[in-house]
């Protein structure tokens, strides 16, 4: 931001408090990372034995992994300037279906999972088509689709599916195949790397950023805007399905509405992430930072024995704070 | 009303320079000038929407507070803009009374009694439809009557009208003129802003001409004719014809691009022309003449209702922008910030976005090669002389001219056959403008068809090898070689070639 000396006239009123401005810009870029480190230091100092242990760190990471997967999918829809409120419901729905396929339909594990993930991607693509081709506002269409999924899930199985699930399926989320790290953490790392590479190193990723950056300009550049958006929605659906499947594996059952709560976590994480390192842009690295803030925060709350109902207060507060910081970061980026 | 020394500048440019103007009750005052002459700024200052830097406005001897729309309204000034500010799903009566004091009974509006003043106003302007009709069901002409009634209910002593006849038919315009004359006879002052000089000459008691923010002429009815008015609008310092050698395309060969009888809504009415290899073809005319709409049709933003396009002799059928780009037609849009650049992204990103396929590390796999991307962006930055600290710099930090060059660079390696530039040097300084023009000309000579649109007559004269002037959706004339002068372009913007009265002997 140092290069913009030419806009001095416009910035004149802001000049008076330029140190404040610099501080705000710095805070809006690195504030989240500093916050994360401060939390880690605080919890380590106040609960050294409990917080600062390998077991607890692995616990934090495996809790974070499911949120990170669903949140990075959500990041894609926000990158293209859209919204997806259905991801939590998609995760719950697919989590139920994947167990049902094994318990009722007798599908092998691998086939159930493949079907589940494709189902998630298909629901996402359907959302994308509603938004781009039918032109229904994303908030409305994804909320409607998500609500419908809740009902369809109930029709499919009105009670949790707990029997008839092979042991090998629950072992997926509980196992530790590599370096003694929980499998969900490994899966998270793979998903994050894949999504990061697609977003930053491929044409479709560049086009997504162009679409989100300036829709009209992207259209005039010959980008098939609708397809790019549908791809982003499908990715979000796929990631939500992956989170839902892992959750069912972790719980050992398919339960209605089990993953609904991930919606808010994912939004809080993605918006925290957009205020990290960049000025209000959504990106995968930022989303990971956001997810870690939430996971460390929840972990600290429970270590200090805060009542469970403190969690929604923390979560909601973080969401509002995160969106606020993101908006602030964007405003300063625009005025710089 | 007296206006004295009204001055307003935007970003260092004077939009209005010490304008003095007296407006008397019972007279129709015309306000004319080219695009950007300062008409809108003047009106906005009066309406209190824009705060002038200097100067004063007094209404009936009292100073008008600056920058207060409410004070302007209370002083009896009413403004009717092209896009009428009516609420479509309210009926005419509700719209007329919107914001006016109403008679209430127990806190509930008594429409019957409140409506008395409104009905009287409606009578004055000759409204014949029931006032209970929803505005969305009214014609544009009828909406104008509603707006005028709205002004009258507020006891407006002056009504400003911006391009009232732009979307009215001939008879509707006549009806409006009758009402305007009637109102002025009743003592209301009218400020009438229009591009249609015939109307202004016919209707107005006094005509004020604005040019470059200054009032250059104020004439009573009958002292100015159309020729004189056109001269006043362009200014007396008509520059001698440019002696620059203009490229004369070989017309015997097949054109690169042809437009055949293209029509779209009421904006473009049966336009045909050919674009030849190597030439810079420019479209001139007033804002609203249909040039931007035509450019959008060519670039696939909208589909023409009639007619078609031919590229390299092949008929095109283009449904959207992506298909246009694949066919080799690209548009550098008028609104650079909102439609051209991705402000948050780097210069390199903005240049490469249309050629990602060519930048793949391995053909067939969708991975972009960072090395190829960098080489292409750096090459184009050097070729066009884009001034930037590096290709990683965010494009938002560059000057308008350099952003524009980056947008042109976007299409240089994209296999573009026809490049449309809408207002290529808007908001760009003179030096950068010349560089942009050089780049455009070089592109044309290399075989790319160039269609440039500009409202800046000076730019048209400087840039184009051939100029087509549009007026009200049609091509009103073609200028080539030494015929391309600012005066001729302006003239054609206001009348057709076949309009005998318009010919300057």
The outline of chain A comes out as: globular
Number of distinct beta strands of chain B: 22
Largest Cβ-defined interface: A-B, 28 and 39 residues
Number of strands of chain A: 0
Q: Mean pLDDT of chain A, as a whole number?
A: 88
Round the Cα radius of gyration of chain A to an integer and report it: 21 Å
CATH class assignment of the largest domain in chain B: Alpha Beta
Uncertain ranges of chain A? 1-16
Tally of domains of chain B:
3
Which class best fits the helix and strand makeup of chain B? alpha/beta
Query: What fraction of the residues of chain B are assigned to beta strands by DSSP?
Result: 15-25%
Could you tell me the strand content of chain A as a percent range?
A: under 5%
Question: What's the helical proportion of residues of chain A?
Answer: over 70%
Structural notes for this entry:
The complex is a heterodimer of chains A (336) and B (505). Chain A is an all-alpha fold. Chain A has a domain at 54-259. Chain A has helices at residues 8-15, 18-46, 48-51, 54-79, 87-103, 109-132, 138-156, 167-174, 183-201, 203-213, 215-220, 225-251, 262-274, 284-303, 310-335. Chain B is α/β, with parallel strands linked by helices and 505 residues long. In chain B, the strands form 5 sheets. In chain B, strands 6-9-10-3-11-12 form a 6-stranded mixed beta sheet, sandwiched between helices. In chain B, strands 18-19-20-15-21-22 form a 6-stranded mixed beta sheet, sandwiched between helices. The longest helix of chain B is centred in the middle third of the chain and has 16 residues, at 170-185. Chain B folds into 3 domains: 2-234, Rossmann fold (3-Layer(aba) Sandwich), CATH 3.40.50.300; 239-328 and 416-505, Rossmann fold (3-Layer(aba) Sandwich); 341-414, no CATH class. Helices cover 32% and strands 24% of the residues of chain B. Chain B has helices spanning 39-47, 69-74, 92-97, 111-124, 140-153, 170-185, 197-203, 226-234, 291-298, 321-327, 336-340, 347-352, 370-384, 400-409, 430-445, 457-463, 486-494; strands at 2-10, 13-22, 28-33, 54-59, 62-63, 77-80, 104-105, 108-109, 158-162, 189-193, 206-211, 214-220, 257-264, 268-275, 280-285, 306-311, 314-316, 329-332, 418-422, 449-453, 466-471, 474-480. Chains A and B meet through helix 10 and helix 11 of A and helix 10 and helix 11 of B.
């Amino acid at each position: 931001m140092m290069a913009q000396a030419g806009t001095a006239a416009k910035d004149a009123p802001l000049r008076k408090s330029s140190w404040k401005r610099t501080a705000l810009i710095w805070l809006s870029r690195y504030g989240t990372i500093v916050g994360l480190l401060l939390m880690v230091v605080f919890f380590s100092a106040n609960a050294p034995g409990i917080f600062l242990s390998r077991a607890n760190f692995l616990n934090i990471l495996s809790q974070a992994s499911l949120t990170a997967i669903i949140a990075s999918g959500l990041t894609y829809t926000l990158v293209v300037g859209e919204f997806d409120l259905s991801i939590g419901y998609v995760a719950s729905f697919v989590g139920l279906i994947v167990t049902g396929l094994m318990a009722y339909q007798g599908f092998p594990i691998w086939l159930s999972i493949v079907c589940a993930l494709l189902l998630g991607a298909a629901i996402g693509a359907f959302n994308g088509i509603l938004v781009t081709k039918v032109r229904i506002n994303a908030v409305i269409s994804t909320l409607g689709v998500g609500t419908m999924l809740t009902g369809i899930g109930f029709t499919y199985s009105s009670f949790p599916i707990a029997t008839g699930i092979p042991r090998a399926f629950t072992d997926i989320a509980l196992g530790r195949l590599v370096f003694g790290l929980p499998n969900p953490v490994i899966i998270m790392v793979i998903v994050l790397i894949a999504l990061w590479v697609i977003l930053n190193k491929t044409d479709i990723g560049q086009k997504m950023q162009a679409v989100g950056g300036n829709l009209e300009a992207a259209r005039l550049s010959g980008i098939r805007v609708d397809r790019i958006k549908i791809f982003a929605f499908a990715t979000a659906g796929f990631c939500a399905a992956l989170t839902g499947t892992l959750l069912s594996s972790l719980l050992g059952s398919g339960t209605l509405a089990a993953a609904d709560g991930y919606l808010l976590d994912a939004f809080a994480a993605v918006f925290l992430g957009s205020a990290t390192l960049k000025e209000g842009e959504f990106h995968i690295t930022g989303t990971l930072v956001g997810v870690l803030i939430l996971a460390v925060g929840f972990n600290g709350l429970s270590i200090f024995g805060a009542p469970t109902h403190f969690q929604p207060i923390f979560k909601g507060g973080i969401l509002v704070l995160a969106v606020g910081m993101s908006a602030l970061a964007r405003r300063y980026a625009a005025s710089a | 009303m007296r206006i004295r020394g009204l001055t307003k500048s935007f970003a260092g440019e004077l939009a209005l320079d010490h304008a003095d103007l007296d407006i008397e009750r019972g007279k129709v005052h015309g306000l004319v000038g080219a695009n950007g002459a300062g008409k809108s700024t003047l009106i906005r200052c009066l309406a209190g929407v824009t705060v002038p830097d200097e100067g004063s406005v007094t209404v009936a001897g009292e100073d008008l507070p600056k920058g207060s729309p409410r004070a302007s309204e209370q002083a009896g000034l009413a403004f009717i803009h092209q896009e009428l500010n009516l609420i479509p799903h309210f009926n005419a009566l509700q719209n007329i009374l919107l914001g006016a004091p109403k008679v209430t009974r127990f806190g509930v509006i008594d429409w019957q009694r409140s409506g008395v003043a409104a009905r009287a106003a409606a009578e004055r302007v000759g409204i014949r439809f029931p006032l209970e009709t929803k505005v969305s069901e009214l014609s544009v002409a009828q909406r104008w009557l509603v707006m005028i009634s709205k002004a009258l209910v507020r006891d407006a002593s002056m009504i400003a009208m911006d391009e009232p006849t732009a979307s009215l038919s001939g008879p509707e315009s006549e009806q409006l003129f009758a009402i305007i004359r009637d109102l002025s006879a009743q003592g209301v002052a009218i400020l009438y802003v229009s591009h249609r000089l015939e109307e202004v000459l016919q209707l107005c008691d006094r005509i004020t001409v604005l040019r470059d923010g200054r009032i250059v002429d104020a004439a009573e009815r009958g002292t100015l004719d159309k020729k004189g008015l056109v001269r006043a609008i362009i200014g007396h310092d008509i520059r001698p014809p440019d002696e620059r050698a203009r490229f004369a395309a070989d017309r015997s060969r097949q054109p690169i691009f042809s437009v055949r009888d293209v029509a779209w809504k009421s904006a473009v009415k049966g336009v045909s022309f050919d674009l030849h290899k190597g030439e810079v073809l420019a479209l001139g005319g007033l804002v609203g003449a249909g040039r931007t709409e035509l450019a959008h049709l060519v670039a696939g933003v909208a589909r023409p209702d009639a007619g078609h396009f031919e590229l390299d002799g092949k008929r095109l059928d283009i449904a959207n922008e992506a298909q246009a780009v694949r066919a080799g037609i690209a548009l550098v849009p008028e609104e650079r910030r909102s439609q051209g650049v991705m402000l948050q992204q780097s210069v390199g990103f903005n240049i490469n976005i249309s050629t990602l396929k060519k930048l793949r590390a391995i053909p067939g796999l969708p991975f972009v090669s960072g090395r190829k991307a960098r080489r292409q962006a750096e090459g184009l930055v050097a070729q066009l002389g884009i001034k930037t600290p590096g290709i990683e710099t965010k494009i938002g930090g560059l000057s308008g001219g350099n952003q524009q060059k980056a947008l042109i660079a976007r299409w240089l390696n994209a296999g573009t056959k026809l490049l449309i530039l809408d207002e290529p040097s808007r908001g760009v300084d003179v030096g950068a403008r010349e560089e942009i023009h050089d780049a455009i000309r070089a592109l044309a000579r290399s075989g790319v068809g160039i269609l440039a649109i500009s409202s800046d007559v000076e730019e048209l004269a400087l840039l184009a090898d051939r100029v087509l002037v549009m007026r009200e959706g049609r091509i009103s004339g073609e200028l080539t070689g030494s015929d391309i002068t600012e005066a001729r372009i302006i003239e054609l913007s206001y009348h057709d070639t076949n309009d005998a009265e318009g010919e300057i002997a």
